[in-house]
Amino acid sequence: MNTRTTRTTRPTRKTHHVRLRRTVIAVASSAAALSLSACSIVDSISGDGGSGSSSGPKKGNDITVGLLLPEKENTRYEKFDYPMIKKQVAAMTSNKGKVEYANAESDEGKQKTQIQQMISDKVDVILLDAVNSKTIASSVQAAKDAGIPVIAYDRLAEGPIDAYLSFDNDLVGEVQGRALLKALGKNTSSKKIVMMNGSPSDPNAAQFKQGALSELQGNVEIVKSYDTKDWKGENAAANMKKAISAVGLHNIDAVYAANDVLGGAVIDVLKDAGVTEIPPVTGQDAELDAVQRLVSGDQYMSVYKPYPDEAIAAAEMAVLRAQGRSIEFEALAGDTIDSPTNKDILYRMVPVVTLTKANVKDTVVKDGIYTVKQICTAKYAEDCVAAGLK
Ligand code: GAL
After folding, report:
1. DSSP secondary structure of 205-267
2. What is the reported pTM?
């Protein structure tokens, strides 16, 4: 289990979130408390077939968890989320529990077919990371009608979900915005910023944007702002080219990019356009090439979302729910949240960490996400030495 001292803490919220209402119903809000409760729950259930719960387990270890992930654009899903969830399900079920996995590759229609397949296969529970949180609602209803509980993973799917767990998405946007202000130094009000936001079909993207705006609005001049269809780098690159022709290459002081794929595309466009000193560009997800850009100084920051924390919690929730251990299942959620269609959904929130050159070692390397060797290839050898990565 991860213990880390560099967690980003939530500042006093400046804006009231209009779409999502969150109510804290339990104390488990600090990273330490979350990690501890996760550890003790893993310990208490690992290897046992679900006995000992006062809520009366309905199934043993022979369960199937359906896992639906949204895309391959971003490496986290195939590299981290899927294998980590699979491993944790196995660990909790004496290797008897299975994960049936499907990736929708950014295609919402494909994801609906995949969920239908899982309903036909009679999986015991579904973990769903939606491509489109709205259009998936009818599939969530179909699963519920078939007696299969759906837990929304990372993105808040609409429809009758049983629970939701995700990183603190508002905080992601806030730390990105704050970092950008810090990078711009004093007298930021005349600084010109381009915003490259995430996919309009992903509710997290709206939260990232809102969190960032809560920091940036009034403090900088936002000269252009784009949403990026399907989180695709090529779409961000096209928008960045438009921004450059509209405002002029040398009139852009910083770029808010919602994730590393978009940040990378923006940086490439700036370089191709002849910029020698890249202005501060943000990101999210601690993608390997983004970590390398942090080290070399091309990218200013990213946001590390400790994947093991989210994946382990998701596997725990899925297994407990499949085994009918409702008291333990509910205990894993610390909050409740409303979606546009449903109220008081059990919600577990996982904190995030600001990632810069300075804490690469204490975060992604320490958590075993990447080795120094993977980051410090020949091209980055000198920068790595300078950044103290050995
Ligand atoms: C978000 C997710 C991010 C990133 C992004 C782009 O919903 O929270 O971690 O994966 O989608 O794919």
Report:
1. HHHHHHHHHHHHBTTBEEEEEE--GGG-HHHHHHHHHHHHHHH-GGG--EEEESSHHHHHHHH
2. 0.84
Q: Please indicate whether residue 304, judged by its CB atom, sits closer than 6 Å to ligand 1.
A: no
Beta bridge partners of 224: 194
pLDDT of residue 57: 53
Ligand 1 atom 7 nearest Cα = 204
Residue 334 is predicted with a pLDDT of: 85
CA dist 333 and 317 (Å) reads 9
Question: For residues 199 and 232, what is the distance between their CA atoms, to the nearest angstrom?
Answer: 8
Pocket test for ligand 1, best of 231, 287, 309, 353 (most atoms within 8 A of CB): 231
Q: Which of 364, 311, 326 is nearest to 167 (CA)?
A: 311
Decide if pLDDT at 259 tops 70.
yes
Statement: residue 1 has pLDDT above 90:
no
Q: How far apart are the first and last CA of the chain?
A: 24
Residue 153: partners with Cβ closer than 8 Å, 6 or more residues away: 67, 81, 127, 128, 129, 165, 166, 310, 314
pLDDT at 138 over 90: yes
Q: Is 259 touching ligand 1 by the criterion CB < 6 Å?
A: yes
For residue 342, give both structure tokens: 């449903």
